[in-house]
Amino acid sequence: MRFSQLNGYRTGPPFISFGLTSLQITLIQIVALAPPVIVTIASSGTTALQIAAVAVVVTLFWELLFAILRRKSLTWHGLTTAMIMIVMVPTVVPLWQLAMAVSLGVVLTELIFGGRGFGFLNAAVTSLAFLVFSFPGSALSGAAIPIAMSSLPGALLLLLFGLISLRVVLAAVTAIAVFSIANPEAFDPIITLSAAAFGLIFLVCDPISSASTNPGRIAYGLFVGLLTAFFDSHTGPAISPVAVVFAALLGSIFAPLIDHVVVLFHAVWRRRRNG
Amino acid sequence: VYSTLRRYLRPRLSAPLVGGELTVVQPKFSALSGVDFPNIRPVFAVKLGDPVRVGQLLFTDRKHPEIAWVAPMAGVIESIEYGSGRILSSIVIRAIEGAENPLTDVPRIEKDDDLRKVLQARGMWPAFLNRPYGRIPLPDATPEAIFVIATETEPYAPDPDVVLRDRRVEFEKGIRALALLTNGIVHVCLPEKYALEASDHPRIRINRLSGPHPAGLAGTHIRRLHPVNSGGSVWSIGYQDLIAIGHLLMTGQYLPDRVISFAGPRTASARLVRTVVGARIRDIASDERKPNASEVPFTAISGSILSGRISDWLGYRHRQVSTINNAPRLQKRRKLKYFHGQNSTFPLVPTTGLERAMPFFLPVVPLMRALSVGDAETAERLGCLDLVEEDMALLSSMCTSGADYGYLLRCVLDDLADAA
Fold it and tell me: Which of A15, A93, A133, B28 is the most buried (most CB within 10 A)?
């Protein structure tokens, strides 16, 4: 039990709340994701709508199944995963491959842990990684400049509500910018950053899969930024979305370790300060 | 829409301190509850139906018979209840008319040890709160520092300046006495306006810390001025308890009076109330309802809306009674509702706002995670020994999970105290 109770009533705090509820967070993320999704659908037409339908139906099917099995209410978090898939899955991908990838990603990284927030990975990241891994030759989309521009208002909204950390954003952008300035023949900073923008905002900065301490957030951002630059296959001036996805995946696997190191350093700092 | 947005964007508490005229409420019942004294196994000196006078011995701790709890009110013992494992649940006194305050000798303090004995025998020792572990200090313990907390930043708290103005002499006497209990420094945390005379003492130091909540909490002051080291200990005491100590040393009488605020989102007019330790909340909050307010019933809780608790009795260290909308009833999981979040457990989403709830550098999210799973070792490494329940209240209100991190901290602290 996570609070004191008596005769079916909770007797201790919190009596008031000024944070967001789980459902509100989902809602904000959906609003933030709406512009890039609309841009994608507007530019690719009916094929994008098919992808959207499959992604939404598959994520909600698994959520509903787990909700019934666990006797919990739906969290609707799957919708944000589906929206990210709409933007990042290219229209040439067969729909059954998409369904497989989304199922694996959502079930293995979210639902078996008890839903979003209880696991340590982002379901969209793992779904995309599954797609690229399992079906060789799959590329990802979402690197176009209109999508980058349309994700900026969402980024601002998420920043305002504290759902992405400015530290992660700045650290990752710094790492990518420094790397691309250091290799001017391979990268152009502006094109590189705009290609990585959507992935950075919605995959890398996800509060659940990124580091959760302030120093850790900076380290995590630098780490993911460097990985993104390293993973890129050097084919063009822009960064391929696959690089961002795998950087986010590896970064979120290392995020708990980064936090753990921060905790150890904090303990040393405390001991030194207090004598 | 704008105000809702702002509430989420800048979660800040702006409820003014409660000042103004005092109303006196003599409650019909008063009680000492075990929640305030965890791990105390009482040996009662009174029986059911016994008449008691103010300051009369009620019970002592079985492990440390020196430490006494005394009656806050003249009356008759109405009920005595044990909790599980023979710990104290509550002892209730019913008021009777015409009972007199017993006059006792003015205690004579010659050695430093005398003060300790007086405080223990006359019921003022439980007013101290020891860190680490947030318990009553051992009878022979010597703290590295003592913190007197006269700063209030909780929403709807009573204005300490109003209380201190009438009790200046007792307060000064109490502070000078505290210097006898420690070889370290007595930190007096005061509101901006109040001037202290005892500041000439070499080991009494005055601190003024202003700002939004939690700037006034004991934990914030301690963390900044004298963090709890390994092996060391720091005590804190509230200003009203210190006034009672001063009164005891000057007159020999136990002073049960406490000035509390009765306020909250559901109260029509906030007011200051003088009542006694452990007063029945129903007597304080009699028929108080906002005119034209919706018919949603409200609950009066002991303590602030952040860290208080639902109880029939005013908490031993609480200085306010707050009104909230009716207490959330825990739902039984029977019917599925797909659109309503009715789950009993929600995830902890590490939003960046959580860091701002702690005014000092502390990896907040790792601490919350450690507390959620009862990982005492990690919590200790993160410095949970500096903290008590009230320090976590702001986090509980800001977290998506709906967990009471104060309660979780208490479980971890008890584990650590038992292991130590």
Answer: A15
- Which residue of B12, B337, B396, B405 to mutate against A (max A Cβ within 10 Å)? B396
Cα–Cα separations (whole angstroms), residue B242 to B156, B247, B321? 21, 9, 20
Q: What's the CA gap between A5 and A14, in Å, rounded?
A: 12
Alpha-carbon distance of A49 to A91, in angstroms, equals 10
Q: What is the ipTM of this complex?
A: 0.92
DSSP string, B49-69: T-EE-TT-EEEEESS-TT-EE
Chain B (344-363) residues lying within 8 Å, Cβ to Cβ, of chain A: 345-353, 355, 361-363
Contacts for A94 with CB less than 8 Å, ≥ 6 apart: none
Calculate the average pLDDT of chain B.
Answer: 84
Which of B265, B352, B400 is nearest residue A165 as measured by Cβ atoms?
B352
pLDDT of A216 reads 95
- Of A237, A203, A234, A61, give the one whose Cα is nearest residue A125: A203
Torsion sign across C-alpha atoms B355, B359, B361, B365: negative
pTM equals: 0.90
Helix axes A241-274, A123-134, angle to 10 degrees: 140
Nearest to A270 among B366, B383, B406 (CB): B383
- The stretch A250-268 carries a mean pLDDT of 94
Q: How far is CA B71 from CA B14, B245, B311, in A?
A: 37, 15, 19
How is residue A85 written in tokens?
């898939």
Give, rounded to a whole angstrom, the gap between the first and last alpha carbons of chain B: 52
Per CB-CB distance under 8 Å, the chain B contacts of A4 are 309, 404, 407
User: What does the alpha-carbon distance between residue B316 and residue B308 come to, in Å, rounded to a whole number?
Assistant: 12
Please tell me the number of Cα atoms within 13 Å of A114 on its side-chain side: 10
Nearest to A246, CA basis, from A218, A233, A227, A259: A227
Candidates B352, B258, B152, B38; CA nearest to A159 is B352
Minimum CA–CA partner of A16 in chain B: B397
CA A235/CA A224 separation, integer angstroms = 20
Under a CB-based contact definition with an 8 Å cutoff, are residues B384 and B343 in contact? Answer: no
Q: Which of B271, B250, B246 has the alpha carbon at shortest distance from B261?
A: B271
pLDDT mean values, one per 10 residues, chain B (420 residues): 50 68 88 89 92 90 93 92 89 82 68 85 93 90 92 88 88 90 91 73 84 84 83 91 93 90 79 91 70 63 89 92 74 52 72 82 91 91 88 88 90 89
Contacts of B403 in chain A (CB under 8 A): 2-3
Q: How many CA atoms lie within 13 A of B380 on its CB side?
A: 17
Q: CA of B244, closest CA in chain A: separation in Å? A: 28
Residue A158 Cα distances to A24, A206, B28, B152, angstroms: 12, 10, 53, 34
